[in-house]
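Handout, page 2. Input:
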Amino acid sequence: MVGTRGRAGAVGLAAIVALGCASAGSGSGGRVVAPTGKVYERGTPPEDTRYSQTAVLYLRRERPRRARELAREGVSRDPGNPIHYYLAGLAHARLGEYRSADSMFVRAEEIYPAYELEVEPARRAAWARAFNEGTDAYAAGDVDRAIDAWRSATILYDLRPRAHRTLADVLVGRGRHREAIETYRKALEGLGRRPATRVLEQGEVREREEARARIEGRLARLLVREGRYAEAEPLLRRRLAEDSTSLDLRSDLALVLDRLGRGVEADELYASILAERDLGSSRLFSLGSLFFRSGDYGRAVEAFGRLTRRQPRSRDAWYNYVNALFAAEEWARITSVGDRLLDVDPLGENAGLIVARAHLEAGDEAAARRLVERVDAAPVYLEGLELQRSGAVSVVRGRVAGNGAEPGSVVRLRFVFYGPEGRLGRRTVSLEVPSPDAMSRFEVSVEGRAEAYRYELIDPPPPTLCDRSRVLSNSLASTAFRRASSRVTIPSSTSSTRASLSVCIPS
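Output:
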Protein backbone atom coordinates (compact mmCIF):
# COMPACT_ATOMS: atom_id res chain seq x y z
CA MET A 1 0.00 0.00 0.00
CA VAL A 2 1.05 3.58 -0.66
CA GLY A 3 0.60 6.13 2.12
CA THR A 4 -0.75 9.68 1.82
CA ARG A 5 0.20 12.65 3.92
CA GLY A 6 -2.91 13.13 5.99
CA ARG A 7 -6.49 13.73 5.01
CA ALA A 8 -5.87 17.10 3.36
CA GLY A 9 -3.27 15.51 1.12
CA ALA A 10 -5.92 13.22 -0.37
CA VAL A 11 -7.48 16.07 -2.31
CA GLY A 12 -4.88 18.80 -2.12
CA LEU A 13 -6.88 20.91 0.38
CA ALA A 14 -3.71 22.50 1.65
CA ALA A 15 -3.33 24.03 -1.78
CA ILE A 16 -6.82 25.52 -1.66
CA VAL A 17 -5.85 27.94 1.08
CA ALA A 18 -3.37 29.77 -1.12
CA LEU A 19 -4.35 29.09 -4.69
CA GLY A 20 -2.00 29.49 -7.59
CA CYS A 21 1.30 30.64 -6.10
CA ALA A 22 1.87 29.18 -2.63
CA SER A 23 4.94 27.24 -3.76
CA ALA A 24 6.22 29.66 -6.33
CA GLY A 25 8.32 32.77 -6.54
CA SER A 26 7.90 35.66 -8.90
CA GLY A 27 10.18 36.09 -11.88
CA SER A 28 10.60 38.90 -14.32
CA GLY A 29 7.49 40.04 -16.13
CA GLY A 30 5.22 38.53 -13.48
CA ARG A 31 6.13 34.98 -14.45
CA VAL A 32 6.14 32.28 -11.76
CA VAL A 33 9.35 30.38 -10.91
CA ALA A 34 9.18 26.86 -9.43
CA PRO A 35 11.54 25.66 -6.66
CA THR A 36 13.37 23.68 -9.32
CA GLY A 37 14.03 26.83 -11.32
CA LYS A 38 11.39 26.16 -13.95
CA VAL A 39 9.86 29.39 -15.23
CA TYR A 40 6.20 29.46 -16.24
CA GLU A 41 4.52 31.68 -18.74
CA ARG A 42 2.03 33.99 -17.07
CA GLY A 43 -1.13 32.65 -18.70
CA THR A 44 -4.42 33.61 -17.06
CA PRO A 45 -4.08 33.54 -13.26
CA PRO A 46 -6.97 32.15 -11.19
CA GLU A 47 -9.53 34.53 -9.68
CA ASP A 48 -11.89 33.76 -6.86
CA THR A 49 -15.60 33.63 -7.66
CA ARG A 50 -18.62 32.79 -5.58
CA TYR A 51 -18.58 29.35 -7.21
CA SER A 52 -14.97 28.71 -6.29
CA GLN A 53 -15.32 30.02 -2.75
CA THR A 54 -18.37 27.88 -2.08
CA ALA A 55 -16.78 24.80 -3.70
CA VAL A 56 -13.78 25.18 -1.36
CA LEU A 57 -16.10 25.24 1.65
CA TYR A 58 -17.81 22.04 0.54
CA LEU A 59 -14.48 20.33 -0.03
CA ARG A 60 -13.41 21.28 3.50
CA ARG A 61 -16.68 19.84 4.82
CA GLU A 62 -16.07 16.53 3.00
CA ARG A 63 -18.92 17.08 0.55
CA PRO A 64 -17.14 16.57 -2.77
CA ARG A 65 -20.30 15.96 -4.82
CA ARG A 66 -21.66 19.40 -4.06
CA ALA A 67 -18.19 20.88 -4.57
CA ARG A 68 -18.03 19.21 -7.97
CA GLU A 69 -21.41 20.64 -8.97
CA LEU A 70 -20.39 24.18 -8.04
CA ALA A 71 -16.99 23.92 -9.72
CA ARG A 72 -18.52 22.58 -12.93
CA GLU A 73 -21.11 25.37 -12.85
CA GLY A 74 -18.24 27.82 -12.50
CA VAL A 75 -16.64 26.25 -15.58
CA SER A 76 -19.85 26.84 -17.53
CA ARG A 77 -20.26 30.41 -16.30
CA ASP A 78 -16.62 31.49 -16.53
CA PRO A 79 -14.70 29.01 -18.76
CA GLY A 80 -11.60 31.20 -18.93
CA ASN A 81 -10.97 31.09 -15.18
CA PRO A 82 -8.65 28.15 -14.33
CA ILE A 83 -9.73 27.99 -10.68
CA HIS A 84 -12.96 26.20 -11.53
CA TYR A 85 -11.15 23.45 -13.47
CA TYR A 86 -8.69 23.01 -10.66
CA LEU A 87 -11.39 22.68 -8.01
CA ALA A 88 -13.43 20.37 -10.23
CA GLY A 89 -10.34 18.18 -10.54
CA LEU A 90 -9.98 18.02 -6.76
CA ALA A 91 -13.64 17.07 -6.36
CA HIS A 92 -13.48 14.41 -9.06
CA ALA A 93 -10.37 12.94 -7.46
CA ARG A 94 -12.06 12.81 -4.05
CA LEU A 95 -14.96 10.90 -5.65
CA GLY A 96 -12.66 8.42 -7.37
CA GLU A 97 -13.47 9.82 -10.81
CA TYR A 98 -9.84 9.85 -11.80
CA ARG A 99 -10.08 10.29 -15.54
CA SER A 100 -12.36 13.30 -15.12
CA ALA A 101 -9.95 14.68 -12.53
CA ASP A 102 -7.11 14.33 -15.02
CA SER A 103 -8.97 16.20 -17.75
CA MET A 104 -9.83 19.05 -15.37
CA PHE A 105 -6.24 19.36 -14.16
CA VAL A 106 -4.96 19.39 -17.72
CA ARG A 107 -7.29 22.23 -18.67
CA ALA A 108 -6.38 24.23 -15.55
CA GLU A 109 -2.68 24.08 -16.49
CA GLU A 110 -3.40 24.98 -20.10
CA ILE A 111 -4.99 28.23 -18.95
CA TYR A 112 -2.52 28.89 -16.13
CA PRO A 113 0.73 26.90 -16.53
CA ALA A 114 1.93 27.64 -12.98
CA TYR A 115 -1.02 25.63 -11.67
CA GLU A 116 1.33 22.67 -12.10
CA LEU A 117 2.74 23.57 -8.69
CA GLU A 118 -0.67 22.90 -7.10
CA VAL A 119 -1.82 20.16 -9.43
CA GLU A 120 1.27 18.00 -9.00
CA PRO A 121 0.75 17.23 -5.27
CA ALA A 122 -2.97 16.75 -5.91
CA ARG A 123 -2.19 14.26 -8.66
CA ARG A 124 0.28 12.47 -6.41
CA ALA A 125 -2.30 12.09 -3.63
CA ALA A 126 -4.96 10.83 -6.04
CA TRP A 127 -2.40 8.44 -7.57
CA ALA A 128 -1.79 6.91 -4.13
CA ARG A 129 -5.50 6.44 -3.58
CA ALA A 130 -6.04 4.81 -6.99
CA PHE A 131 -3.02 2.56 -6.54
CA ASN A 132 -4.27 1.37 -3.15
CA GLU A 133 -7.71 0.70 -4.60
CA GLY A 134 -6.08 -1.49 -7.23
CA THR A 135 -4.04 -3.33 -4.61
CA ASP A 136 -7.16 -4.02 -2.53
CA ALA A 137 -9.07 -5.25 -5.59
CA TYR A 138 -6.24 -7.54 -6.62
CA ALA A 139 -6.00 -9.00 -3.12
CA ALA A 140 -9.75 -9.68 -3.29
CA GLY A 141 -9.32 -11.53 -6.58
CA ASP A 142 -10.95 -8.85 -8.75
CA VAL A 143 -8.18 -8.48 -11.31
CA ASP A 144 -10.25 -6.49 -13.80
CA ARG A 145 -11.08 -3.85 -11.22
CA ALA A 146 -7.45 -3.77 -10.13
CA ILE A 147 -6.36 -3.18 -13.72
CA ASP A 148 -8.85 -0.30 -14.05
CA ALA A 149 -7.65 1.31 -10.83
CA TRP A 150 -3.95 0.97 -11.66
CA ARG A 151 -4.58 2.33 -15.14
CA SER A 152 -6.24 5.38 -13.57
CA ALA A 153 -3.19 5.80 -11.34
CA THR A 154 -0.89 5.80 -14.37
CA ILE A 155 -3.02 8.44 -16.07
CA LEU A 156 -3.02 10.70 -13.02
CA TYR A 157 0.68 10.67 -12.20
CA ASP A 158 3.71 9.29 -13.99
CA LEU A 159 6.55 10.54 -11.78
CA ARG A 160 6.37 7.29 -9.79
CA PRO A 161 6.74 4.08 -11.84
CA ARG A 162 5.22 1.66 -9.35
CA ALA A 163 1.69 1.69 -10.73
CA HIS A 164 2.94 1.42 -14.32
CA ARG A 165 5.19 -1.51 -13.47
CA THR A 166 2.51 -3.35 -11.48
CA LEU A 167 -0.10 -2.82 -14.20
CA ALA A 168 2.24 -3.92 -16.98
CA ASP A 169 3.26 -7.07 -15.10
CA VAL A 170 -0.38 -8.07 -14.62
CA LEU A 171 -1.14 -7.34 -18.28
CA VAL A 172 1.75 -9.59 -19.31
CA GLY A 173 0.33 -12.35 -17.12
CA ARG A 174 -2.98 -12.00 -18.95
CA GLY A 175 -1.36 -12.10 -22.37
CA ARG A 176 -2.17 -8.46 -23.13
CA HIS A 177 1.32 -7.74 -24.37
CA ARG A 178 0.62 -4.71 -26.53
CA GLU A 179 -0.92 -2.87 -23.60
CA ALA A 180 1.93 -3.94 -21.34
CA ILE A 181 4.53 -2.64 -23.78
CA GLU A 182 2.81 0.74 -23.96
CA THR A 183 2.55 0.89 -20.16
CA TYR A 184 6.26 0.13 -19.70
CA ARG A 185 7.08 2.86 -22.22
CA LYS A 186 4.94 5.40 -20.40
CA ALA A 187 6.70 4.49 -17.18
CA LEU A 188 10.04 5.27 -18.84
CA GLU A 189 8.68 8.58 -20.10
CA GLY A 190 7.67 9.50 -16.56
CA LEU A 191 11.09 8.54 -15.21
CA GLY A 192 12.59 10.89 -17.76
CA ARG A 193 10.75 13.81 -16.14
CA ARG A 194 11.36 15.51 -12.80
CA PRO A 195 8.93 16.93 -10.25
CA ALA A 196 8.21 20.65 -10.51
CA THR A 197 7.60 21.22 -6.81
CA ARG A 198 10.91 20.02 -5.38
CA VAL A 199 14.45 18.99 -6.23
CA LEU A 200 15.08 15.25 -5.98
CA GLU A 201 17.59 14.08 -3.42
CA GLN A 202 20.55 11.96 -4.50
CA GLY A 203 19.00 8.77 -3.09
CA GLU A 204 15.80 9.38 -5.02
CA VAL A 205 17.71 9.92 -8.25
CA ARG A 206 19.52 6.63 -7.70
CA GLU A 207 16.24 4.79 -7.02
CA ARG A 208 14.74 6.18 -10.21
CA GLU A 209 17.75 5.05 -12.23
CA GLU A 210 17.44 1.56 -10.75
CA ALA A 211 13.72 1.52 -11.58
CA ARG A 212 14.47 2.65 -15.12
CA ALA A 213 16.97 -0.19 -15.56
CA ARG A 214 14.46 -2.79 -14.34
CA ILE A 215 11.68 -1.50 -16.54
CA GLU A 216 13.93 -1.29 -19.60
CA GLY A 217 14.93 -4.90 -19.00
CA ARG A 218 11.31 -6.07 -18.74
CA LEU A 219 10.33 -4.08 -21.81
CA ALA A 220 13.24 -5.43 -23.83
CA ARG A 221 12.42 -9.04 -22.92
CA LEU A 222 8.77 -8.53 -23.83
CA LEU A 223 9.68 -6.94 -27.16
CA VAL A 224 11.94 -9.92 -27.94
CA ARG A 225 9.14 -12.28 -26.96
CA GLU A 226 6.81 -10.45 -29.34
CA GLY A 227 9.33 -10.57 -32.18
CA ARG A 228 9.78 -6.78 -32.18
CA TYR A 229 13.54 -7.08 -32.44
CA ALA A 230 14.33 -3.67 -33.94
CA GLU A 231 12.61 -1.99 -30.99
CA ALA A 232 14.38 -4.21 -28.47
CA GLU A 233 17.92 -3.62 -29.77
CA PRO A 234 18.45 -0.03 -28.51
CA LEU A 235 17.10 -0.96 -25.09
CA LEU A 236 19.43 -3.94 -24.83
CA ARG A 237 22.41 -1.90 -25.96
CA ARG A 238 21.64 0.80 -23.41
CA ARG A 239 21.42 -1.81 -20.68
CA LEU A 240 24.69 -3.42 -21.83
CA ALA A 241 26.41 -0.04 -21.72
CA GLU A 242 25.64 0.01 -17.99
CA ASP A 243 26.17 -3.73 -17.32
CA SER A 244 28.56 -5.10 -19.93
CA THR A 245 29.12 -8.40 -18.09
CA SER A 246 25.45 -9.48 -18.03
CA LEU A 247 25.07 -12.83 -19.75
CA ASP A 248 21.30 -12.35 -19.97
CA LEU A 249 21.67 -9.09 -21.87
CA ARG A 250 24.39 -10.45 -24.14
CA SER A 251 22.32 -13.55 -24.92
CA ASP A 252 19.21 -11.49 -25.65
CA LEU A 253 21.13 -9.09 -27.88
CA ALA A 254 22.73 -11.98 -29.77
CA LEU A 255 19.30 -13.44 -30.43
CA VAL A 256 17.99 -10.06 -31.58
CA LEU A 257 20.91 -9.55 -33.95
CA ASP A 258 20.45 -13.04 -35.34
CA ARG A 259 16.74 -12.38 -35.95
CA LEU A 260 17.59 -9.09 -37.64
CA GLY A 261 19.83 -10.92 -40.09
CA ARG A 262 23.10 -9.66 -38.61
CA GLY A 263 24.63 -13.08 -38.20
CA VAL A 264 28.27 -12.00 -37.94
CA GLU A 265 27.58 -9.76 -34.94
CA ALA A 266 25.40 -12.45 -33.36
CA ASP A 267 28.10 -15.11 -33.82
CA GLU A 268 30.69 -12.91 -32.14
CA LEU A 269 28.44 -12.45 -29.12
CA TYR A 270 27.55 -16.14 -28.93
CA ALA A 271 31.24 -17.08 -29.10
CA SER A 272 32.11 -14.68 -26.29
CA ILE A 273 29.32 -16.07 -24.13
CA LEU A 274 30.32 -19.70 -24.60
CA ALA A 275 33.92 -18.76 -23.87
CA GLU A 276 32.92 -17.95 -20.30
CA ARG A 277 34.38 -20.57 -17.98
CA ASP A 278 32.04 -20.13 -15.03
CA LEU A 279 28.66 -20.57 -16.71
CA GLY A 280 26.23 -22.09 -14.22
CA SER A 281 23.79 -24.90 -14.88
CA SER A 282 20.76 -22.68 -15.40
CA ARG A 283 22.74 -20.44 -17.74
CA LEU A 284 23.95 -23.39 -19.80
CA PHE A 285 20.41 -24.70 -20.06
CA SER A 286 19.09 -21.30 -21.15
CA LEU A 287 21.85 -20.93 -23.73
CA GLY A 288 21.29 -24.43 -25.06
CA SER A 289 17.57 -23.73 -25.37
CA LEU A 290 18.26 -20.42 -27.09
CA PHE A 291 20.65 -21.98 -29.60
CA PHE A 292 18.28 -24.86 -30.24
CA ARG A 293 15.32 -22.61 -30.94
CA SER A 294 17.38 -20.51 -33.32
CA GLY A 295 18.50 -23.62 -35.22
CA ASP A 296 22.14 -23.32 -34.11
CA TYR A 297 22.42 -26.98 -33.19
CA GLY A 298 26.21 -26.99 -32.99
CA ARG A 299 26.23 -24.45 -30.19
CA ALA A 300 23.25 -26.15 -28.57
CA VAL A 301 25.33 -29.35 -28.49
CA GLU A 302 28.21 -27.46 -26.88
CA ALA A 303 26.01 -25.84 -24.22
CA PHE A 304 24.12 -29.01 -23.31
CA GLY A 305 27.33 -31.04 -23.43
CA ARG A 306 28.87 -28.75 -20.84
CA LEU A 307 25.68 -29.12 -18.81
CA THR A 308 26.09 -32.91 -18.72
CA ARG A 309 29.60 -32.44 -17.35
CA ARG A 310 28.24 -30.22 -14.59
CA GLN A 311 25.26 -32.52 -13.95
CA PRO A 312 26.40 -36.02 -14.96
CA ARG A 313 23.36 -37.68 -13.33
CA SER A 314 20.71 -35.33 -14.72
CA ARG A 315 18.03 -36.87 -16.90
CA ASP A 316 17.16 -33.49 -18.42
CA ALA A 317 20.79 -32.61 -19.19
CA TRP A 318 21.39 -35.87 -21.05
CA TYR A 319 18.05 -35.79 -22.82
CA ASN A 320 18.63 -32.28 -24.12
CA TYR A 321 22.20 -33.07 -25.11
CA VAL A 322 21.18 -36.14 -27.10
CA ASN A 323 18.25 -34.27 -28.61
CA ALA A 324 20.61 -31.54 -29.82
CA LEU A 325 22.91 -34.19 -31.27
CA PHE A 326 19.90 -35.74 -32.97
CA ALA A 327 18.92 -32.40 -34.52
CA ALA A 328 22.51 -31.97 -35.70
CA GLU A 329 22.52 -35.56 -37.07
CA GLU A 330 25.61 -36.39 -35.01
CA TRP A 331 24.87 -40.12 -35.13
CA ALA A 332 28.26 -41.39 -33.98
CA ARG A 333 28.29 -39.16 -30.93
CA ILE A 334 24.79 -40.31 -29.97
CA THR A 335 25.86 -43.95 -30.12
CA SER A 336 28.76 -43.17 -27.79
CA VAL A 337 26.64 -41.47 -25.12
CA GLY A 338 23.27 -43.15 -25.66
CA ASP A 339 23.71 -45.51 -22.72
CA ARG A 340 24.17 -42.53 -20.40
CA LEU A 341 20.76 -41.21 -21.44
CA LEU A 342 19.04 -44.60 -21.13
CA ASP A 343 20.51 -45.08 -17.65
CA VAL A 344 18.76 -41.94 -16.37
CA ASP A 345 15.65 -42.16 -18.58
CA PRO A 346 14.99 -45.92 -18.85
CA LEU A 347 11.26 -45.60 -19.63
CA GLY A 348 11.54 -42.77 -22.11
CA GLU A 349 10.17 -44.05 -25.41
CA ASN A 350 11.63 -41.10 -27.26
CA ALA A 351 15.02 -41.51 -25.66
CA GLY A 352 15.25 -45.16 -26.73
CA LEU A 353 14.08 -44.48 -30.27
CA ILE A 354 16.51 -41.60 -30.76
CA VAL A 355 19.43 -43.80 -29.76
CA ALA A 356 18.12 -46.64 -31.94
CA ARG A 357 17.89 -44.30 -34.91
CA ALA A 358 21.48 -43.16 -34.36
CA HIS A 359 22.76 -46.76 -34.34
CA LEU A 360 20.91 -47.51 -37.57
CA GLU A 361 22.26 -44.37 -39.23
CA ALA A 362 25.75 -45.35 -38.05
CA GLY A 363 25.36 -48.77 -39.70
CA ASP A 364 24.86 -50.89 -36.56
CA GLU A 365 21.50 -52.43 -37.40
CA ALA A 366 21.77 -55.15 -34.76
CA ALA A 367 22.19 -52.60 -31.98
CA ALA A 368 19.28 -50.62 -33.40
CA ARG A 369 17.08 -53.73 -33.30
CA ARG A 370 18.02 -54.50 -29.70
CA LEU A 371 17.18 -50.97 -28.64
CA VAL A 372 13.80 -51.05 -30.37
CA GLU A 373 13.03 -54.37 -28.69
CA ARG A 374 13.98 -52.82 -25.37
CA VAL A 375 11.62 -49.91 -26.00
CA ASP A 376 8.81 -52.27 -27.03
CA ALA A 377 9.31 -54.37 -23.88
CA ALA A 378 8.98 -51.43 -21.45
CA PRO A 379 6.06 -51.91 -19.02
CA VAL A 380 5.09 -48.23 -19.33
CA TYR A 381 6.46 -45.05 -20.88
CA LEU A 382 7.13 -41.78 -19.06
CA GLU A 383 6.42 -38.61 -21.01
CA GLY A 384 6.51 -34.85 -20.52
CA LEU A 385 8.84 -34.93 -17.53
CA GLU A 386 9.32 -31.48 -16.05
CA LEU A 387 11.26 -30.31 -13.00
CA GLN A 388 9.69 -27.34 -11.23
CA ARG A 389 10.77 -25.50 -8.10
CA SER A 390 8.49 -23.61 -5.76
CA GLY A 391 10.01 -22.16 -2.63
CA ALA A 392 11.74 -24.92 -0.69
CA VAL A 393 10.10 -27.77 -2.64
CA SER A 394 11.08 -29.32 -5.98
CA VAL A 395 8.59 -31.35 -8.00
CA VAL A 396 8.90 -33.59 -11.05
CA ARG A 397 5.65 -33.83 -12.98
CA GLY A 398 4.95 -36.05 -15.93
CA ARG A 399 2.64 -38.54 -17.60
CA VAL A 400 2.66 -42.33 -17.59
CA ALA A 401 1.46 -44.14 -20.71
CA GLY A 402 0.54 -47.81 -20.80
CA ASN A 403 2.58 -50.31 -22.83
CA GLY A 404 3.57 -53.86 -21.87
CA ALA A 405 2.33 -54.10 -18.29
CA GLU A 406 -1.16 -55.28 -17.49
CA PRO A 407 -3.60 -52.33 -17.18
CA GLY A 408 -4.46 -51.80 -13.53
CA SER A 409 -1.22 -53.30 -12.27
CA VAL A 410 1.35 -51.18 -10.44
CA VAL A 411 4.87 -50.13 -11.37
CA ARG A 412 7.26 -48.65 -8.82
CA LEU A 413 9.85 -46.02 -9.67
CA ARG A 414 12.64 -44.45 -7.64
CA PHE A 415 13.46 -40.79 -8.28
CA VAL A 416 16.78 -39.39 -7.07
CA PHE A 417 17.10 -35.62 -6.68
CA TYR A 418 20.33 -33.60 -6.70
CA GLY A 419 21.05 -30.09 -5.45
CA PRO A 420 24.13 -27.87 -5.72
CA GLU A 421 25.85 -29.79 -2.92
CA GLY A 422 24.94 -33.29 -4.05
CA ARG A 423 22.05 -35.68 -3.49
CA LEU A 424 18.96 -34.20 -1.85
CA GLY A 425 17.04 -37.42 -1.40
CA ARG A 426 15.23 -40.38 -2.95
CA ARG A 427 11.53 -40.78 -3.43
CA THR A 428 9.63 -43.89 -4.49
CA VAL A 429 6.38 -43.57 -6.39
CA SER A 430 3.86 -46.28 -7.27
CA LEU A 431 1.92 -45.74 -10.49
CA GLU A 432 -1.14 -47.60 -11.70
CA VAL A 433 -0.68 -48.74 -15.29
CA PRO A 434 -3.18 -47.23 -17.73
CA SER A 435 -4.32 -49.01 -20.87
CA PRO A 436 -1.96 -48.80 -23.89
CA ASP A 437 -4.04 -46.07 -25.54
CA ALA A 438 -4.33 -43.95 -22.38
CA MET A 439 -2.10 -42.04 -19.98
CA SER A 440 -2.33 -40.50 -16.53
CA ARG A 441 -0.46 -37.75 -14.71
CA PHE A 442 1.83 -38.11 -11.74
CA GLU A 443 4.20 -36.06 -9.62
CA VAL A 444 6.90 -36.69 -7.05
CA SER A 445 8.48 -34.06 -4.80
CA VAL A 446 11.39 -33.51 -2.45
CA GLU A 447 12.28 -30.83 0.08
CA GLY A 448 14.98 -28.47 -1.17
CA ARG A 449 15.91 -26.80 -4.45
CA ALA A 450 16.79 -29.59 -6.84
CA GLU A 451 18.88 -28.81 -9.92
CA ALA A 452 18.69 -32.29 -11.42
CA TYR A 453 17.07 -35.69 -11.10
CA ARG A 454 17.14 -39.20 -12.51
CA TYR A 455 14.85 -42.17 -12.07
CA GLU A 456 14.98 -45.96 -12.22
CA LEU A 457 12.48 -48.80 -12.52
CA ILE A 458 12.16 -50.90 -9.35
CA ASP A 459 9.24 -53.20 -10.05
CA PRO A 460 8.71 -54.96 -12.33
CA PRO A 461 12.44 -55.33 -13.00
CA PRO A 462 13.74 -54.22 -16.39
CA PRO A 463 13.35 -56.96 -19.05
CA THR A 464 16.32 -59.07 -20.13
CA LEU A 465 16.37 -59.26 -23.90
CA CYS A 466 18.03 -62.00 -25.91
CA ASP A 467 20.68 -60.89 -28.36
CA ARG A 468 18.92 -61.22 -31.69
CA SER A 469 21.69 -59.89 -33.88
CA ARG A 470 20.20 -60.58 -37.27
CA VAL A 471 21.45 -58.01 -39.71
CA LEU A 472 18.87 -56.30 -41.87
CA SER A 473 19.18 -56.64 -45.60
CA ASN A 474 19.87 -53.50 -47.60
CA SER A 475 16.28 -53.38 -48.79
CA LEU A 476 14.96 -53.69 -45.25
CA ALA A 477 17.45 -51.18 -43.90
CA SER A 478 16.24 -48.60 -46.36
CA THR A 479 12.72 -48.89 -44.93
CA ALA A 480 13.61 -49.60 -41.32
CA PHE A 481 12.46 -46.19 -40.17
CA ARG A 482 9.63 -45.57 -42.56
CA ARG A 483 7.38 -44.81 -39.55
CA ALA A 484 9.96 -42.44 -38.08
CA SER A 485 9.14 -38.79 -37.78
CA SER A 486 10.81 -36.22 -35.58
CA ARG A 487 9.43 -33.23 -33.79
CA VAL A 488 11.88 -31.53 -31.48
CA THR A 489 10.97 -28.53 -29.37
CA ILE A 490 12.24 -26.91 -26.21
CA PRO A 491 9.56 -25.60 -23.90
CA SER A 492 10.36 -23.63 -20.74
CA SER A 493 13.71 -23.52 -18.99
CA THR A 494 12.39 -25.88 -16.32
CA SER A 495 11.66 -28.77 -18.65
CA SER A 496 13.51 -30.85 -21.16
CA THR A 497 13.25 -30.99 -24.89
CA ARG A 498 10.65 -33.24 -26.39
CA ALA A 499 11.62 -35.39 -29.35
CA SER A 500 8.86 -37.55 -30.71
CA LEU A 501 9.57 -40.23 -33.25
CA SER A 502 8.36 -43.70 -34.04
CA VAL A 503 10.61 -46.54 -35.18
CA CYS A 504 9.67 -49.79 -36.87
CA ILE A 505 12.34 -52.36 -37.76
CA PRO A 506 10.82 -55.18 -39.83
CA SER A 507 11.72 -58.71 -38.77
